[in-house]
Amino acid sequence: MHPHVLQLDIQGTPQAWISLEQAVLHYATGSVAWEDGDLPLATLRGGFNVARGVQSRIEVAPIIALRGASKINLFDVVPGVTKAKLLRRDRHTCAYCAQVFADRDLQCEHVMPESRGGPWSWTNLVSACAACNNRKAARTPEEAGMPLVYLPYVPSRFENFLLEGRNIRADVHEWLAKRLPRGSRLQ
């Protein structure tokens, strides 16, 4: 079972992964505007209505959009960088030798060295194998004579939700994948 529900704003912009319990609360308060996904994620049953003799139940969809507008423009929010998301963004490929490696064999490499003020950011980090990272050392790719095989970029909001690497249902994955920017490395 995949217990997380993809919460969207009314326009379909991903906001968060929420628990089944949080989703039920949104259903119970009437704040779900629309839903998507194949088959319910779960059906929760409650008590019996004595007058009608019917048991209450709530079917929770894997994707729900909430009423109202976001307080901030979610497309202006830069997703947080983690090693796991960076390696997935770069498809486990070293930015210098273009070989594919396992997670444990890759490092987060600063394009502009950290020792020279290079920030920990999506546009300054790439995946690199230990050999290439040691060879480049505290130099820029140009100084080391090691051009980048691909350029670093900030993932879109939809890419970020896929990069988080949660165990999600195929229909939710498809829904997010259909909204990826053209040219995304995740396609």
From TrEMBL:
Keyword Nucleotidyltransferase among record annotations: no
Organism domain of life: Bacteria
InterPro entries in the record: HNH_5, HNH_nuc, NA-targeting_endonuclease
Domain annotation HNH nuclease: ranges: 81-134
Record's signal peptide: none
Keywords, sorted A to Z: Endonuclease, Hydrolase, Nuclease
Xref: PANTHER family: OS07G0170200 PROTEIN, SLL1193 PROTEIN
UniProt name for this protein: HNH endonuclease
Species whose genome carries this gene: Acidovorax cavernicola
